[in-house]
Amino acid sequence: MKNPIGNLNKVFDSRIRMGVMSILLVNTEISFNDLKQLLELTDGNLASHLVNLEENGFIKVHKGFIGRKTNTTYSITRTGEKAFKDHIEALENMIRGVK
Amino acid sequence: MDNGNEASQSLEALQDIKRMMERSSRFISLSGLSGLSAGICALVGAWIADGWMRAYYGGGGFVTRYGYKAAGAHELKERLILLALGVLAAALLSSTFFTWRKARRNNLPIWDHSSRKLTINMAIPLAAGGFFVLGLLDHAEWDSIAPACLVFYGLALVNASKYTLTDIRYLGIMEVILGCINMYYPEGGLYFWAVGFGVLHIIYGLFMWWKYERTDA
After folding, report:
1. Which of A10-14, A15-19, B54-58 has the lowest mean pLDDT?
2. Strand, coil or helix: what is A29?
3. Which of A35, A32, A1, A14 is nearest to A84 (CA)?
4. Which long-range contacts (CB under 8 A, 24 or more apart) does A38-47 make?
5. Cβ contact (<8 Å) for A94 and B6?
6. What is the DSSP letter of B214?
């Protein structure tokens, strides 16, 4: 029998990483602070998940400045978009599977 | 783990995804009561303006190639502009209040990524419309002022609908249509304005309140 959860991506098991990907799928670019506010997280916690996503090649980091303050923004990569859409599809298939 | 449990977890995950997508791209705290209060401000303003204009036209004057001339035209114009600014301020304050209240009840921030995007995208057509109407005032093109307000405001709402509850798109389209019709009935400017900014806002506000907020009142 085919493993029903085989198509789920381990990286998106974490609710936080899943949240980041959901946000990036519908926003071309979003800043660290906006992500922090939307997901209600602390700096350190969010940063570690973002590093993980970046290492997997799912998101791109852009470092910029607003005046003298650093302004880091994030966007989704093609690989990330494909991986996350596959993950959503796998979730949908699991729901259909039991109907 | 049995299949039913896995399915419910998947469903929960999908609902989370949908919620994050919506919350990060659309400002959902816009309250129907905001529309209602803005509409009431507009109707009161239009009623006062109507009274002033009736008094002016009833006061005796004459029609020239450039319009109706009577003593006090300049003063009336200034009073009407001040009234318009007052109506705008009252509408903005009251509608911000109801939206702030709704955001607070839902434990959502009023000024965040989504409300910022909504404000910017609404402000672009509105600022263009504002300058356009100031130009019309300057050139004494009175007849086009109400239609220009309606059309630019309607287009601003259509643009804004991508960043908030989508229903506002239909209000925007109605405003644009009303403005276009008004171009051919220039003598009814104030009435068209009152219908567009007053009546339509009230209908829209009640509809939105009934659709989204009735349950938490």
Report:
1. B54-58
2. coil
3. A14
4. A38/B20, A38/B23, A38/B24, A38/B112, A38/B113, A39/B20, A41/A16, A45/A16, A46/A16
5. yes
6. G
Q: Is A27 part of any domain?
A: yes
Residue A1 forms contact with B (CB below 8 Å):
no
- Partners of A27 on chain B (C-beta within 8 Å) are 24-25, 113
> Does B66 fall in a domain?
yes
ipTM of the assembly?
0.80
Instruction: List the single range of A7-11, A33-37, B124-128 with lowest mean pLDDT.
Output: A7-11
In a domain, A17, yes or no: yes
- Of B7, B11, B21, which has the smallest distance from its Cβ to A26's Cβ? B21
| Range of the structural domain that residue A26 is part of | 13-94
Is the pTM above the cut of 0.90?
Answer: no
Q: State the angle between helix axes of B3-25 and B113-138 in degrees (0 to 180), rounded to the nearest 10.
A: 30
Residue A41 sits at the chain B interface (C-beta within 8 Å): no
Containing structural domain, residue B48: 30-216
Residue A36: CATH number of its domain: 1.10.10.10
Which of A19, A38, A95 minimises the CB distance to B7?
A95
Contact B21 A94 (CB under 8 A): no
pLDDT digits (tens, 9 = 90+) for B164-214: 988 999 999 999 999 999 999 988 889 999 999 999 999 999 999 998 888
- Asked whether B69 and B35 are in contact (CB, 8 A), the reply is no
Say if A82 falls within a structural domain.
Answer: yes
For chain A, how many structural domains are there in total?
1
Tokens of B66: 């450039």
Which pLDDT score, from 0 to 100, does residue B166 have? Answer: 87
